[in-house]
């Protein structure tokens, strides 16, 4: 049986528990044994970590100790998949630059807060986005510092109403990459659990988790 570890916590404004409750049933329906942890010390158990199929971090901000970080990085490097969304993966552990290197990006701003914007599918052949059309979101539009080695699957374009100097900027929303032998998937959507009521947003994360998993 495949196994997934979902690690929830950090800033509660991103509804980590509620978001886990959106996706844990999906993984179980796919045949995964799902463990839900609410402590970062779970990353210290090296044999357990390296035996997993998939890790889903849902932990915004917070502090990751060096030994905890090492356990997570080494597990993914050994081939365990990593998949996550929004701040639960892309705005976590702001002092841990190697963690950010693995993720492939870091949140820096969401000009205008909650607003309407479009997500554009730019790779229609990838299994994560195949068959999906461009769609609208009403949520935070993440401005991120991103790794140029990411394989970008979807983007968004910023307007200039709130920060005129970034008008027209094309920003990655969904990407995938490698970390050692592990597959890494990230989606910047999902400020709160209700965001995943948008079918395309939910489906992208479903597919991304399955793609990342070994």
Output the radius of gyration. Answer: 16 Å
Q: How many domains, as an integer?
A: 1
**Could you say what the CATH topology is called?**
Rossmann fold
Question: Main beta sheet: strand number and arrangement?
Answer: 9 strands, mixed
User: Which homologous superfamily in CATH is the superfamily?
Assistant: Class I glutamine amidotransferase (GATase) domain
CATH hierarchy: architecture? 3-Layer(aba) Sandwich
Strand order within the widest beta sheet? 2-1-3-4-11-10-9-6-7
Distance between the termini: 12 Å
Our count of helices gives: 6
Helix fraction bin: 25-40%
SSE string:
EHEHEHEHHEEEEEEEH
Overall mean pLDDT score? Answer: 98
| Overall strand count | 11
Spans of at least 5 consecutive residues whose pLDDT stays below 50 are: none
Category by helix and strand content? alpha/beta
**Percentage of β-strand residues:** 25-35%
Question: What is the overall shape?
Answer: globular
CATH C-level name: Alpha Beta
Your description of this structure?
A hairpin with a 2-residue loop joins β10 (170-179) and β11 (182-187). The chain is globular. It has one domain: Class I glutamine amidotransferase (GATase) domain (Rossmann fold), CATH 3.40.50. The strands form two sheets. The chain has a nine-stranded mixed beta sheet with strand order 2-1-3-4-11-10-9-6-7, with helices on both faces. A two-stranded antiparallel ribbon has the order 5-8. It is of the alpha/beta class. The chain contains six helices and eleven strands. The relative contact order is 0.18. It has helices at residues 16-29, 46-50, 66-77, 86-90, 97-103, 199-212, and strands spanning 2-10, 32-37, 54-60, 81-85, 105-109, 114-121, 135-140, 143-146, 151-157, 170-179, 182-187.
């Amino acid at each position: 049986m495949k196994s997934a570890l979902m690690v929830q916590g950090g800033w509660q404004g991103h509804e980590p528990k509620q978001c886990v409750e959106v996706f844990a049933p999906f993984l179980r329906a796919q045949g995964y044994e799902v463990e839900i942890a609410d402590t970062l010390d779970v990353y210290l158990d090296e044999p357990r970590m390296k035996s997993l199929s998939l890790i889903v971090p849902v932990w915004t901000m917070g502090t990751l100790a060096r030994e905890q970080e090492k356990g997570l990085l080494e597990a993914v490097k050994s081939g365990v998949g990593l998949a996550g969304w929004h701040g639960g993966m892309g705005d976590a552990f702001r002092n841990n630059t190697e963690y950010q290197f693995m993720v492939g990006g870091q949140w820096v701003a969401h000009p205008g807060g909650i607003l309407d914007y479009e997500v554009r599918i730019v790779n229609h052949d990838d299994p994560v986005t195949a068959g999906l059309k461009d769609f609208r979101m009403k949520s935070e539009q993440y401005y991120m510092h991103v790794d140029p080695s990411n394989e970008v699957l979807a983007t968004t374009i910023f307007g200039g109403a709130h920060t005129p100097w970034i008008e027209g900027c094309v920003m990655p929303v969904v990407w995938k990459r490698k970390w050692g032998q592990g597959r890494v998937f990230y989606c910047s959507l999902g400020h709160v659990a209700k965001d995943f009521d948008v079918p395309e947003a939910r489906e992208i994360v479903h597919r991304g988790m399955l793609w990342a998993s070994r």
